[in-house]
Amino acid sequence: MRIPEIEFASAEEIEKCQNEKLIETVLYLNSNSKFYQEMFRRENINPSDIKTVSDLKKIPFTAKDDLHNRNEDFICVSKNQISDYVTTSGTIGDPVTFALTDRDLDRLAYNEYISFICADGSSEDIYQLMCTLDRRFMAGLAYFLGIRKLGAGIIRVGNGLPELQWDTIKRIKPTALVGVPSFILKMIEYAEHNGIDCNETSVVKAICIGENIRKSDFSYNTLGKNITDKWNIKLYSTYASTEKGTSFTECGAGTGGHLHPELIIAEVIDENGNDVGEGETGELVFTTLGVEGMPLLRYRSGDLCQYFSSPCECGRNTLRLGPIIGRRHHMIKYRGTTLYPPALYDVLDSINEVIIYYVEVFTNEIGTDEILIHVNAKGDQHKIESLIKDKIRAKVRVAPKIVFEESEIIRKIVFPELSRKSQKFLDRRL
To answer: Shortest CA distance to 318 belongs to which of 11, 61, 2, 3?
Structure first.
């Protein structure tokens, strides 16, 4: 195993590395990307003038709409060089297709290899992969390639089916899980109902994907606490997206996901496009490095987070990202209070009586945001409604409307047939 020296380098050395790779990226885009060629001409940008990370400020942001509207204009290679096609999950809008070359797949494997090392992984581990490798899904493929490069064992169980997950744990004895935290919680529930002692198994850690397990102060949120209260395993948070082709994964310190400086440049900006300070909330903007098929410059992710640049106790000096607070497009202004859906999720996850839920936001008759929480729960509905409202009011000062529905009705919304992710937020605003 090899941890890249750049992750332990000084801030000056990291900046020098990123400057060199940025120059290569910009010149490459000027030669191969129709979208960025046009942008440079339109904005009178001489690519040779972009020499440092600070020079990125001279370049306009790339938006998600750009990818939707001009998807093919971002592709920098001929079709015969494309080895794999993946799509985004479509959290906002329709999915976008990404084209990966052989070099991109190698980069993807390398990214996850060093990310798994960051999360205390080794060739001695056996990873139970609880996400799909099909349906044009990048993450499952990335984890598979990274674990393979690590030299560890892989069990491709896929998502769902708690019975099969536990049977696999019993038969093959993996040391680590890779999966969605809420599903790990479902595995615990299955174990409790079927006489399985979680803490008498081979599993000692889990790489948590797709959902937050921590609050902004890095303590476990309700979901993380519910898992670790019943299963004595180490949780590692990881944050990634198809657009990035790069992950931010926690080390054992659990104080934010580490940036890999040779693979990505990160900025965190306010609503006016200006840099925010360390520990302040802003939108993540990133520039990919070393991507061949579809590199991106200053891409606005829509994800809101905080960054931290102080040295980590693990010895890395790389920038760290805190938990994703919400998505910029998902911000809700409700009765004078600004909030994001994860704040509601944390409350609902803390109530044992709540079985399944989703949050719906729509525009009411006076043109303001209205929140409706759809819930299936066990027990007295009036008591549960009061409990939900009291807990939400204590957290965000307002109490939205609650409607109780059959589990199957909610399940069809939360788990759409063709989706790869659960859908807890339904935005119906005009």
So the answer is: 11
